[in-house]
Amino acid sequence: MSEMTSPPVDPNEDPNKDPKDAEALACPHCLKPPSVCVCDAIKPIDNRVEVLILQHPQEQDRILGTARLLALQLTRCTFKIGLSWPSLSKALGEEADPNQWAVMHLGAVHGEDLPDEGDVFVLDRKGHLLQGQERELAAIRGLIVFDGTWSQAKTLWWRNAWVLKTRRIVLNPKQPSLYGRLRKEPRREGLSTLEAVALALSRIERNPELEKGLRSTFARMLQRYRDGLKQGLAELMDGVSKPKASANRPKRHWGKTRRQSADSAP
Ligand SMILES: [Zn+2]
Questions:
Q1: How far apart, in Å, are the Cα atoms of 185 and each of 189, 247, 255?
Q2: 34 alpha carbon to ligand 1 midpoint, in Å?
Q3: Residue 82 β-bridge partners
Q4: Cα 123 to averaged position of ligand 1 atoms, centre (Å)
Q5: Digitized pLDDT (tens) for each residue of the chain, 266 residues in all
Q6: What is the pTM of this model?
Q7: Centroid of ligand 1 to alpha carbon of 28 (angstroms)
Q8: How much distance in Å is there from the Cα of 69 to the middle of ligand 1?
Q9: How many Å lie between the centroid of ligand 1 and the Cα of residue 221?
């Protein structure tokens, strides 16, 4: 329906904005303010299994969101913003067989309880645990993840009926999210999109280094954010994350407001 490929800069960017505007200072790659950008530390991760990130257009978390950071690290990753696509191939931009792909599952698993052993499981199209988990994991050629709040991800799920043709990956993470108390809104298993994909990919590819590499970049970003909070930059950072939430407000007004908050930061 509304589809955009990953742009180098924010597509909603106001060309007439004040160059001093905090948004204008955002990194062109991760779109985060310089205070939390970790692009200089990104080491490409050569993943074998393709990842398709579909981000809800209203996903607001530009400071602590991880989808773009994930996409920047993975060598095989497609990042799209939109609400619906007619098929997996259309979303991916190349031919793909949904039978060989899996979607990161939302919500409860019905039927069987998950085994105590293990943290990543493959379910069939109806949400039932498959026999031969090792074999099923190894057979996955691509992974789809919906990025957004819980309700945004649910919307994406229902708007893209073709995901019902794919298998499902469900997580039972043994370690908590690195977000700690930073994240206000609970998301899938409490993990960030980056952490969820890192865990799933590392099990599918049987490569623990993959998860370590992805998580360390995320940890670095959170450390920069926490350092920023300590330095009293919270107000400035909030200003960067808010404009899309108030699209109906006059641009000039919020531009001015944010400039003021930038000025008032020590
Ligand atoms: Zn960056």
A1: 12, 21, 26
A2: 7
A3: 3
A4: 35
A5: 344 444 444 444 444 444 456 567 899 999 999 999 999 999 999 999 999 999 999 987 778 899 999 999 999 999 999 999 999 999 999 999 999 999 998 766 654 578 888 899 999 998 889 999 999 999 999 999 999 988 899 999 999 999 999 999 999 888 888 888 777 655 555 789 999 999 999 999 999 999 999 999 999 999 999 888 887 755 555 555 544 444 443 333 333 333 333 333 33
A6: 0.78
A7: 7
A8: 8
A9: 10
